[in-house]
Design a protein that fits this description.
Order of helices and strands: EEEHEEHHHEHEHEEEHEEHHHHHEHEHE
Strand order of the largest sheet: 3-8-7-6-4-5
Strand content: 15-25%
Radius of gyration: 21 Å
Largest sheet: 6 strands, mixed
CATH class of the largest domain: Alpha Beta
CATH topology of the largest domain: Cytidine Deaminase, domain 2
Oligomer: single chain
Shape: globular
Distance between the termini: 28 Å
CATH architecture of the largest domain: 3-Layer(aba) Sandwich
Structural class: alpha/beta
Number of domains: 3
CATH superfamily of the largest domain: AICAR transformylase, duplication domain
Length: 390
């Protein structure tokens, strides 16, 4: 099949809509559901991301995509007991692929709500059972076990989007798109993100451990498929904060850093000890945790509405307590899709535990950025490669 009609384009008024191949057949098969225009953009970008993560790390990979940017991305490293608890998977069997998806989905659960999932490997039963519990639009993978397919086909009363991608498909070297009737053409971004890109460490601290290199590669590959400007924080094999589509790089760094901070604060004892009312929906529980961490919790206490969410009124998680907990987060990797123009980005990254950085370099203020890294003992590599994605 070389063409598929879609319900509509980005918006309901944008008709007609279709995807098609000028030569050959579409490289994917829709097993179930009826994916839309944005669904397919997320699916195809997500597939490229996880395929590259698998190639770069040798580990199964997963991503959670929303509106053509990843909300989370990860490889299949084992989860600690704490991560299992904050990802709400402490009572299920986990395979390496399921670990990857739990990490990708759990890093920013609010942004992942209604995601499109991409998996680097055949979807197994354990991963399908995790997907079954979440609000999601669909999944793309190179294959599905019989058990996984049975579980996923039952989701959304049989309307869940299940796409099987040809893992051997190679697109043409030249890609095109139209804007305002004008056709744009460029060579595909086939940059291989590997250890060699991290060899030019220009700070006083020259040490990049194998784990740091892995996390920096995860950050850079994630950025390759994130709407620019973009910045990505990574720890222990997973993105923990992604800032996408901002006009200012410091706004990217702050946005991603705030997400990384929330991810770490969710692991604080004050949050782990929260007791929710019986039957609370998963999305309501996730929102409540974010409110508890934020200044809005004071309003919840003042309005006396906490009883709708918690069995026992939680004490205030003070800013001083939060800062003390955040200071325990270390060994975070940071990638940027273009150069940092000012040292303020490094100052903000330091507050979220960043110790290693990869960025293209090339700013007229590189010296200031390097000096700020040296102040905190960070190691920073200049890749010489920009990763804009639009």
């Amino acid at each position: 099949m070389n063409e598929m009609q879609l319900k509509y384009g980005c918006n309901p008024n944008q008709k007609p809509s279709r995807v098609f191949m000028e030569n050959g057949d579409l490289p994917f098969e829709v097993i179930s559901g009826k994916p839309g225009y944005i669904n397919l953009l997320d699916a195809l970008n997500g597939w490229q991301l996880v395929k590259e993560l698998k190639k770069a790390t040798g580990l199964p990979a997963a991503t959670s995509f929303k509106h053509v940017s990843p909300a989370g991305a990860a490889v299949g490293l084992p989860l600690s007991d704490t991560l299992k608890k904050i990802y709400f998977v402490d009572d299920v069997e986990l395979t390496p692929l399921a670990n990857a998806y739990a990490r990708a989905r759990g890093a920013d659960r609010m942004s992942s709500f209604g995601d499109f999932i991409a998996l680097s490997d055949e979807c197994d039963k354990a991963t399908a059972l995790l997907i079954k519990k979440e609000v999601s639009d669909g999944v793309i993978a190179p294959g599905y076990s019989d058990e996984a397919l049975e579980i996923l086909k039952a989701k959304k009363k049989g309307n869940y989007n299940i796409i099987k991608i040809d893992p051997n498909y190679t697109p043409a070297e030249i890609e095109r798109k139209q804007v305002f009737g004008v056709t744009f053409e460029q060579g595909r971004n086939e940059l291989d993100i590997n250890d060699e890109l991290l060899s030019n460490v220009i700070t006083d601290n020259k040490t990049l451990s194998d784990e740091a290199k892995r996390d920096l590669k995860i950050a850079l590959i994630t950025l390759k498929y994130t709407q620019s400007n973009s910045v990505c924080y990574v720890k222990d094999g997973q993105a923990i904060g992604i800032g996408a589509g901002q006009q200012s790089r410091i706004h990217c760094t702050r946005l991603a850093g705030n997400k990384a901070d929330i991810w770490w604060l969710r692991q604080a004892p004050q949050v782990l000890e929260l007791q929710f009312v019986d039957g609370i929906k998963r999305a309501d529980r996730d929102n409540a945790i974010d409110v508890y961490i934020s200044d809005e919790y004071m309003d919840v206490l003042a309005d006396g509405v906490w009883e709708k969410t918690f069995k026992v009124k939680p004490p205030v998680f003070t800013k001083e307590e939060q800062r003390a907990w955040l200071d325990k987060n270390t060994d975070v990797a940071l990638g940027s899709d273009a150069f940092f123009p000012f040292g303020d980005n490094i100052e903000r990254a330091h507050k979220s535990g960043v110790t290693v950085i990869a960025q293209p370099g090339g700013s007229i203020r590189d010296d200031n950025v390097i000096e700020t890294c040296n102040k905190y003992g960070m190691a920073m590599a200049f890749t010489g490669i920009r990763l804009f994605h639009h």
